[in-house]
Amino acid sequence: MTIRQLFLSACMAAMATGATAEGVKVGMITTLSGGGAGLGIDVRDGFMLAVEQSGRDDIEVVIEDDQRKPDVAVQLADKMIQSEKVDVLTGIIWSNLAMAVIPGAVAQGKFYLSPNAGPSVLAGKGCNPNYFNVAWQNDNLHEAAGAYANSARLTNSFILAPNYPAGQDALTGYKRFYEGELAGELYTKLGQTDYASEIAQIRAAGADSVFFFLPGGMGISFMKQYAESGLDLPVVGPAFSFDQGILQAVGDAALGVRNTSQWSKDLDNPANTAFVESFQAKYDRLPSLYASQGFDTANLLISAVEAADVGDQDAFRAALKAADFASTRGDFEFGPNNHPIQDFYVREVIQEGDVFTNKVESLVLESHGDAYAAECKM
Amino acid sequence: MSLILLAEQTLNGLQFGMMLFLMAAGLTLIFGVMGLINLAHGSLYMVGAFIAAATAAFTGSFLLALIASLAAAALAGVLIEMTIIRRLYERDHLDQVLATFALILIFSEGTRWVFGSFPLYLDIPDALSGTVTLPFGVEYSLYRLVLIGVGLVIALGLFLLIGKTRLGIRIRAGENDREMIGALGVDISRLYTLVFALGAALAGLAGALIGAIQSVQVGMGEPVLILAFVVIVIGGIGSIKGALVGALLVGLTDTLGRFLLPKAFALVLDPSQATAIGSALASMAIYILMAGVLILRPRGLFGGAAS
């Protein structure tokens, strides 16, 4: 199926080149193979859905698989900039790949629209007028989790994350907003799959809640083992470990968990309702957080293409900055460092029939920007 | 730090070690008997987990899922042995590494093609969920206890198989002198297929058992594969006893290291530094152990004489 989609999008791309000489050429570098492929596929599908719905034939998208390897991503970016001559790059999922590609791409005068990664350096000192983040700054969802913990009167959290930059950012983000005590703080090995040791320590620590950031398979393993350990402290986490793509694999163990997100499939706005419906109709599965981010990224791009010609960089940049599109998240605008200012919600994992999904519980941070905007000089 | 917590962590280490043993036993047999470095062993682990998840989803029975995973992994083992691996015995190790690495890629993308990119669901059966209270008030997960038991039973079975049966004699003879047992009229290629299938089945079983408490996803086999290689290097290549001792050593070192090192550093450093240094050192602990063993015993703890 994915091969067919690739082929289709390649065909669409080919037709688009034939149709017009001007127009915008987009290079999408994302993860389509290996363990992290679910995220890249969702971003791609969300993006291509928006392009298709716009009915425009002047947007050409070249899609390549970075295999979640920074060196491959850099090679692909070089190829796209030098031989494909793309105007805009997008698609990268992981912060380490983003750090390897984005500074070079924007230095060569290309636009980069990030559908997922938001490393702190690129929001602060390393910000660039041509770099727009359509998802969030990495700390945001964790900050929202900290704010939620306060409102839920949690006062003694045990927190854990993998020992790598995004994991350290996660705990920093949580602690930036969380006002209670810490029962314990742990860094686990990246890619670790057995959490028996950590769970035993949580049990012994006398905590009243657990906050964790363990993306992908790590989170699935942790939740299953946590549920099976007999511990029943409330769990709080960012949406990454409780998103549509992996909830079915976690199963019952995730029920009732509160997680923070800027998007949810039940957010009540016309753009989102239409998106969820059309995504389901086209791909026969519920959209994830990542799909919504891909969809929003494409719609931002389309809004800019409608307003300005990509050849006129200043006008195109201003059109992007205006963010004049209907986001699936409702209100959306860019802050001074081209990162979103948006609302963050806490969601609860529920079961609808056979399907595990999320329901918005409440708004935790309203029109929230990020902590690094002040360091950005541009 | 209480003794109860320490006891629980020791059990965790044992359980982790037992699962590593299932992987390492197959790997060490295959290397010992055929002299083959099989990087695709982790893929057989993944096949076991995926087949178990699919069977459990279809039939709702965990036992059937385990049987299916054993059978599927053994079948996959026989298939790749007869079509590909068989051609590699005479080649040098570099060719074997290249070819079996290619198999990893083929298995990964093939699995993704069949099962999709999203992790699958596999849960422990209701009868084994929950915790039990052991003597001295240690509360421990029943399923993990069962895993330790399964590991022990399989270890015992393998010792009996290798030590007491005709097949075991042939396997040991094959490790010592391949040409000679061929000359004595043993169908060596059937023996190789059998050993490969046995190793594959153990890997598949480990995948299914572990898949129930971890995530069943593409690429789940490679991290375990690396640990399994560490185990057989520590234990001595070709030795089942070495695989068992090595696996338990690695399991205990890893689990207790992760738990004790940050605490040890916290006695002399401030907490956040201690956590950072302790966690970093804990992830190196098993490799330090391996280096230490290799310095003292270059052929591993139970490694034989020159082959």
UniProtKB/TrEMBL annotation, chain A:
Gene3D superfamilies the UniProt entry points to: 3.40.50.2300
UniProt record similarity statement: Belongs to the leucine-binding protein family.
Start and end residues of each Leucine-binding protein domain: 24-353
Keywords from the UniProt entry: Amino-acid transport, Signal, Transport
Naturally occurring in which organism (per UniProt): Palleronia caenipelagi
Superkingdom, taxonomy of origin: Bacteria
Gene Ontology biological process: amino acid transport
Name the record gives this protein: ABC transporter substrate-binding protein
Signal peptide feature range: 1-21
SUPFAM superfamilies per record: Periplasmic binding protein-like I (SSF53822)
Automatic annotation (TrEMBL), chain B:
Signal peptide location: none
Keyword hit for Transferase: no
GO cellular component labels: plasma membrane
Family in the record: Belongs to the binding-protein-dependent transport system permease family. LivHM subfamily.
Keywords for this protein: Amino-acid transport, Cell membrane, Membrane, Transmembrane, Transmembrane helix, Transport
Keyword Membrane: yes
Superkingdom of source: Bacteria
Membrane topology summary: Multi-pass membrane protein
Location(s), subcellular: Cell membrane
Main localization of the protein described in the UniProt heading: membrane
Protein name per UniProt: Branched-chain amino acid ABC transporter permease
GO MF annotation, one: transmembrane transporter activity
Residues that span the membrane, as ranges: 16-37, 44-60, 66-85, 97-122, 142-162, 191-213, 225-253, 274-296
BP-aspect Gene Ontology terms: amino acid transport
